[in-house]
Each structure stands twice: as structure tokens, then as C-alpha cells.
# Entry
Amino acid sequence: MFKGVIVPVLTSFDKNNRLILNKNYLKYLDFLKNSGIENLMINGTNGEFHSMNMKERKDILNFIVKNTEFNLMVHIGSNNIFETIELGKHAMSLKIMDLSVICPYFFPIDQTSVIEYYIQISKELKDANIFLYNNLSFTFNKIDFKILNLIKNRTNNVVGIKDTNNTPWLVQKAKEEFGEGFQVFGGSDSYALSYLAHGADGFVSGTANIFPKTALKIFESFKNGDIKKASYWQNIFQDNIENISDKVAFTDSLKYSLKLMNMDIGIPRKPVRETNDAEKNKIEEYIHRSNNLN
# Structure
């Protein structure tokens, strides 16, 4: 079971859009580890999974498993259900049993289609722990509590959900209906503390790629019952979000921030653009004056 902060790792691409797995990438992963991060999500939204082919998604997982020691959750979602299942089987072959699956995206589908999609994945990957990934703003298909309830009652291995819809009240309803063992993680950095206050097991944070210790302080302060301190760190985190990760080209604002911190993991893959000079100047100014860098 996962607890606390899960960092959705970035993926390293060079200027020719090639996947790069090298010592610079390891330096970035070491930075997260040395900052106290124990849990990673591989091939998530921050990892640009949507621009990667199946081999690349396997390769980055192989690299991380071989070279690091983290608790890993692997996102295997795809609009191609056969690809999703193959990615799941590959992760399981590496003894990674915690698999996240985003709701089908781009083309609107009805409630029955969403439910049947997850039921088939659950059956095909029956020995895995399946975490639903709810992100309406990116997928245009939602997993509301009614759909979640129907999926949970018709599967044996759906054990949790990552909710990026800014609906922290989902946590209490899910815990009451499915028990405390059902895990819920917030997926919106601005709502991290709100999800914890509603009983979430933790949160998945893209901003924690740059400010891991701040994210950890939110969770640790809350866990210790110090709401005032947790609120303080959430406010600091919100400042980080607004200046770094709440950008149109957010994957590059994160990568450029790492570059300023002597960790060069390249640029985003097309069609995502690089940050322009004006944006870079603002990021540089913020990073240099920030008092909570790790």
C-alpha cells in the first residue's frame, strides 16, 4: 500500500525527440531519493506517456527498476486496450503489481463503455492492483462515484483511484463504501491538503519534481496533526505551483527548473513547445530567490 507523496516522474527527451536514459536522468532520480521521496509513478501525465510508444514506456520502466530503489506505481493507460494490457503484463513481469489506468480519452464514451473497459482490464490483469486514474479535464470522460461504485462491485482487484478532478469529498464516500483499504490519492497539487483533510492516503504531485521536500512537509505536518503547519506549507506549495508548474508548457517549465538546479533531462517531446525566453527569465528569477529549494 502507498502512503504520502507520489512523484510522477518526468521523461527525458533530447532535441531530436529521442528518449534518453543516462547518468543525467539518474542524477534527477537520485535527487528525488535524497530528498526523501519513496514513491514514484512511471509514465504518467507529467511523464508525457501520450507521446510515447510502447517500447519507450517499457524501456523507461526497465531502466528505473534496474537502477533505483523506489516504491513504483506504473501508469499503463492507453486508448488501445491491447496496449494497456501488454504494458500491464510487462510491469508485472518486473514484479510491479500496482498499475494505474487513465480513463479512455479524446473520444467521449458513455458510462457503460467506461465500466466495461475497466472490467476487461481487471480480468486480463487479475493479479495486479488496479488504480483508476480520473482526469476529466484531459480525457473528457469521467469516473464519478456512481461509475466508481459499479466498477468496484464488478471487479476483484480495483484497489484505489487517483482523482485529479478537484473533488476531495470523493475520498470520504469511497472510504465509507469500500473500506479504509481502498486507497484514494489527490491528483491536483493545489488541493493536496484538502484531499488529506478528507481522508486521502496521499497525493500525486508534479510540482514535487522540483520541490519534493515541501510536498513531504505538507503530508508529514498533516500526519502529525499540525494543521496550521500543513496549511503553511500548502501556501508555500501554491506559490511554487503558480510560478513553476501551472504553465501551458508545464513539462518544460519543470525540466527547465531542473536544468537550473544542475539536472539536465532535456526538453519536452513535440508537439509540446519549450518555454520561451520571457518564461525562462521568470523561472530563473523564481528559482534563484526561492527559499524552499531542496
Observations:
- The CA atoms of residues 214 and 237 lie 7 Å apart.
- The domain at 4-289 is CATH 3.20.20.70 (TIM Barrel).
